[in-house]
Amino acid sequence: MRILVVSDIHANWPALAAINERYDICLCLGDLVDYGPDPAPCVRWAMANVKYGIRGNHDHGVAQGVPVVGDAGYRYLTRVTRPLMWEALGPEERRYLLRLPLTRRFTIDGKKFLLVHGTPRDPLDEYVMKDPETWAKRLQDVDADYVCVGHTHVQFHLKINNTIVLNPGSVGQPRDGDPRAAYAIIDGDRIELKRIDYPIADTLAHIDSLRLPDRAKEMFRASYTQGRLRPHDKLEQPA
Ligand SMILES: [Fe+2]
């Protein structure tokens, strides 16, 4: 059984479309929307291809019509792109986001899976990186062979006792300094953390065509080309 694990696609269709993998089952760990220019094709792809999907904090905010406040960093980019999500998504796509569960449990080939966007303690919002001590605490009452998480946009896997914690990273908005799309494959007992090139220029051209402040467009250029968001003031420094 070959399992494709994706997360944090964030409306970046060129990144998602670049994944060229044979797989039997696809798992999606949330955040299909916000930030990127193409939410509808990403949600449609999930509707057609994802067997087990869960809700990310951004899916929740978009589906529930939550406005965002904030003027810095990713929160600012969420604020300026969220209205574009509401314009771009049709009722069926919005309904799909609305119905995504917070967690999912199932068994594949005798292995027990738990999917959560953040952590088992706080499925939508808690950030935990590759930190064995914190994960050991979060897994104390969890009975699973695989706990698959997203949210941080940084990929890793970690074994805590008999449980593997897997974060496939972000397909559409990596934040680890590597701008390539990230995802993971579970094939039998083997886990592969993958990175692939995609046409970043296509995503940026689409961003440029949207009704967004120039400041947001500059920040997106940094994020998509560098795989991290440099502070805006640095971008304005003369070269
Ligand atoms: Fe995310």
Defining traits:
alpha/beta; Purple Acid Phosphatase, chain A, domain 2; 21% strand; five-stranded mixed sheet; globular; binds fe (ii) ion; disordered C terminus; 239 residues; single chain
Question: What's the short version?
Answer:
This protein is of the alpha/beta class and 239 residues long.
- How many DSSP helices? 9
Strand content: 15-25%
Please list the strands of the largest sheet in the order they lie side by side.
3-2-1-9-10
Major pleated sheet:
5 strands, mixed
CATH topology: Purple Acid Phosphatase, chain A, domain 2
What's the helix-strand series? EHEHEHHHEEHEEEEEHHH
The assigned structural class equals: alpha/beta
Mean pLDDT: 95
**CATH-level-4 superfamily name:** Metallo-dependent phosphatases
Oligomeric state as shown? single chain
For the record, the count of structural domains works out to: 1
Low-confidence segments, given as residue ranges, are 232-239
Q: In CATH terms, what is the architecture?
A: 4-Layer Sandwich
